[in-house]
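Translate sequence into structure tokens.
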Amino acid sequence: MISEEGERAKSGGFEGELPCEDHWSWDKQHHSHEVTLGGKQLRTARFHPNWSSGTAGVRGTKILNNGRYYWELILSRRIFGTSMMFGVGTKKARLHEDSFVNLLGIDKHSWGLSHKGLIWHNGNWSYYTKPFRENVSTRIGVLFDGVAGTLTYYKDGKCLGIAFRGLNEIKEPLFPAVCSTAAKTEMILENMKRDFVNLQDRCRAVIVKRLNCKEDVKKLCLPLRMQSYLCDVIEDSLDSYRLVSKNLDYLEANFLTSIPGKT
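Result follows.
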């Protein structure tokens, strides 16, 4: 069963892009002992590498409050079990349970969508979308709008509608989070985007576009504080220096208007 909001929001899927590339990973300090991290920039989370006797979770390094963020999760063909979930949570959100549960949304500290098509928060659930087909590779998009306070999901490019509201009222830091009860499953983080926070952030994006690596920042002869601010958004990986679209006209045309689902 698909929610009424989900039906209303289905207008052709992910139609726009947030204007700025984002760079974050799964948190190597905050995850279940049944989660191993790997891949490029620790963006692959593997759950229960041998067998499963409970529920394992991991949170992302990105603080989401007050911003607009989009990210995608690539689920391999191993989609099965009691619950594979995607959502957000505070620092108090539980990341491990020695039983098979819907961990994201089990209490008031997290919000999540299960592959069974149910959304959970504070121990309560409701129907949101059709259950995912098991053992079929799937791409899940998550749009967090900290200004409007909403969390919206996409499945294989199709918008499923707003799942949660009121997240702008949460004062504690909110982080992306995922969990799984199923053995030898994995979720790969891809295609992270964000809106600009302010004019300073926008200016930084334009400057960094013309740099190749952190060493180039030192050549600008800027105060150390400004150098640090620029380096904060430059990745060390050799194949990922560019942080914004190469088309500046696109940025000008789409700033503040390119959020998927925004009216």
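Note: The first strand starts at residue 20 and ends at 21.
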